[in-house]
Amino acid sequence: MNLFDMQCFTQRMIQCTEMRSEDLSKVDDIFRDLPGVSAIKSIEIYRDMYQTRVFDTLLDDFPRILKLMGDERFDHLAQSYIKAFPSKSYTLEDMGQDFALFLEQSKQERLVIDLAKLEWAVALSFRYPLVVMPGCFNDLQVALAEGDDVALELNPRCHVLDLDPSLLDFCEWLEQHETFPEIKQAVTPLAVPHLVYQSSRQVFELKLTQAESWFLESFRKAAPMGPIVDGLLERFPSDESQGIINTFGAWIESGVLLPILIK
Amino acid sequence: MKKGFHDLGIGAGLRHPHFRDIMETAPNIPWFEALTENYLATEGYPKDCLMEIADRYPIALHGVSMSVGSHDSLDLNYIKKLKKMIGEIHPVAVSDHLCWTGVIGINTHDLLPMPYTDEALIHCIRRVRQIQDELGVQILLENPSSYLAFKGSVWEEAAFLNTLAIESGCGILLDINNVYVSSKNFGFDPKSYLKHISPDLVGYMHIAGHSHREGYILDSHVGPIPSEVLKLYHETIKTIGPRPTIVEWDEDIPELSVLMKEIENVKRTIPTGKATADSERMRDESF
Lengths: 263, 287
Ligand SMILES: [Fe+2]
Description:
The complex is a heterodimer of chains A (263) and B (287).
Chain A lengths: L2 H13 L5 H10 E2 L6 H23 L1 H22 L14 H7 L4 H16 L12 H8 L4 E5 L12 H10 L4 H6 L9 E2 L3 H20 L4 H11 L3 H15 L3 E5 L2
Antiparallel strand pairs in A: 2-3, 2-4
Chain B lengths: L9 E4 L5 H7 L6 E4 L1 H4 L4 H12 L2 E4 L13 H14 L3 E5 L20 H18 L4 E3 L6 E2 L6 H12 L2 E5 H11 L3 H6 L6 E7 L2 E3 L2 E3 L8 H14 L4 E4 L7 H14 L3 H10 L5
Parallel strand pairs in B: 1-2, 1-11, 2-3, 3-4, 4-5, 5-7, 7-8, 8-11
Antiparallel strand pairs in B: 9-10
The complex binds fe (ii) ion (FE2).
The site of fe (ii) ion (FE2) has 5 residues of chain B, from loops.
């Protein structure tokens, strides 16, 4: 057997979930038993390591999907995903890049697909320099109360679950909050379809104030976000500004966030 | 490899949980080995830390995705990124493994063992030459740990690796724990393995811990380093002379202070001055 055939067979054995009977005898033909383990067990060792490695990567990247679906459903989905979209990248960090697409193709609920997009956007944003993650909903209250006129909004087709602080806390806050009733109306126990985001408030607000006229002008012209981000980086080279812009840049590129004007 | 590389002593694998400590306390560790792939796809925090640490310490780049033995054509996108990184970091050494990671465009992200055949050897020699030409630097290949043996193999792994290094011009990264792990899994004498490796080809070494499983030993890189591996390390150095060495600790990664104690522990196993002088004489005699 030549190198190519040996590698193809070995790889197929490592990636499959179950060996067929003809595979079992071929394993015995190609590999030898070791003192402590049979050839078949040898393959199983590699298969287990493969499964663990890719599963752990998906778990790291999609913790909220796991929470939403539970261990068993997630395992099943992940299993089918790695079969349908085996890694073709030199880095495991790309393992989750087609997960949302896979969920879409396998006709999962809209909510799950959007959440996968959101989680992948989060994972991607860590690859940008000086990332500052958005996440604290309490800042939203302040931002709205002070009447910012530019903000970033979640794509209405995206849903947010259980971010930090928990959705329950967020719903409670919305209960007490009167200034943005349309958000309150839209809230369901699982989904917040229309939501304004704010990062570390002072920093982001400061940058928006500085950027205001240029930012507004760009939005009015509906400029694609890539040049907006590039432009901001040129104009505001401070580390924090770059971090925030890059974070949002990643989110916007993924389609989770939309730039909007608040009237 | 860079000038002065041979005297670097015992360093450590650079791991994410230690970034802050290293940058803030500048610990007395002579060099680090960074896992290439952790920094190739990012311009974010890890890359920043690596750049900062590389300003203060010698760094080796150690990869897992070169896939030297794969039948597929070389991933030039990967090589291009690696070359760029070499230009940024100016590593003291660039290494990967004697293995393949996938075929027909797929990556299993594992260091899969090669069938040690003539065909594979010729393939690897061509491949390493191509990689070194593309990168413009010599690479070192690490002996893998493995749990799988091809019936078609006609070469001993050590002889295969040694011939590959001679013919392609690459160096050898000798992982003492891997020699130990494979010797137990395959049932050979680790000293006979080392006899096949020409000391002159060994650029640096790895040392790490492992875990016992039912019927085999797993190269888990969980520390501390077991005494039998330290003993093999000691004997190797006694024979081929000291080499720069990296302590690899990847599972249950401890505090930096614990890792530093482990480095001290490894240092203590290095034969004393006289023994080292002996080793210089013995160096040519090999095992
Ligand atoms: Fe190693």
